[in-house]
Design a protein that fits this description.
Distance between the termini: 22 Å
CATH class: Alpha Beta
Low-confidence stretches: 8-15, 241-266
Number of domains: 1
Number of helices: 11
Strand order of the largest sheet: 3-7-2-8-9
Structural class: alpha/beta
Shape: globular
Largest sheet: 5 strands, parallel
Helix content: 40-55%
CATH topology: Rossmann fold
Length: 266
Amino acid sequence: MGHTSTRTNHSAGESARLVIAVDGPSGSGKSSVCQEAARRLGAHYLDTGAMYRAATWYCLDRELDLDDQDAVAVALEELPLKISTDPDHQVIMVGATDVTEAIRQSRISEKVSEVANNRKARPLLISAQRDIIDASEFIVAEGRDVTTVVAPDAQVRVLLTASAEVRLARRGLQLGGSASSEALNRQVIGRDKRDSVTTNFTEAADGVGVLDSSDLSFDQTVDSLIERVRDVQETDPAGVSRPTVSAQAKSGSEPTSGAAAHGKNL
């Protein structure tokens, strides 16, 4: 599986080997929260769910039967994926095709679990995710099993969650009220149920802190995550130095619109 990641340099300060891993169910806000936290911290940002979505798009574009696990795994060995880790400029390319918007379509949302739960294909994507994280000195990575499988040794590990009612409401806002309650349940509750076959993202593993955003605003949730990062930086354990966050990193080096609601992606 071919893959590359790109990011422009946000911070001119001291670099540090620091990994922030965040997992959570659909609609918990992990993508928008983690992207904003990375922006403020001057860190790289990896949306692992986008990689599964891109893989799903690739398979559907080739009209593969997603139930054929062998065919999907063989196809993904050749997946020409390029994903940006710049929180201000998220671009996902498959070959020469920009799929950044296409992978958010309902047809992908309703099929991505079939690829994510493919036990022959999943290791390929996990390996690619680890490569991207290992190549980054300071990164916020989020998904379903980042805290337990992809980066279990991350210095900061958080399970970001919210009540089912709140998650459904957030996903409805994200879709602009265009989805029926049945479709929302299918995208949020149904997908979580399907994905729970291979990963446990509803309960925190040992050493993973819980951040419940049910009663928190977007900014409060971001602040809480950053506070946990700062706690680790202040403790300054062996192998972790304190990255300097420049004013440019906090504001973003390129004009970009901030996420107005939780659950921007996955």
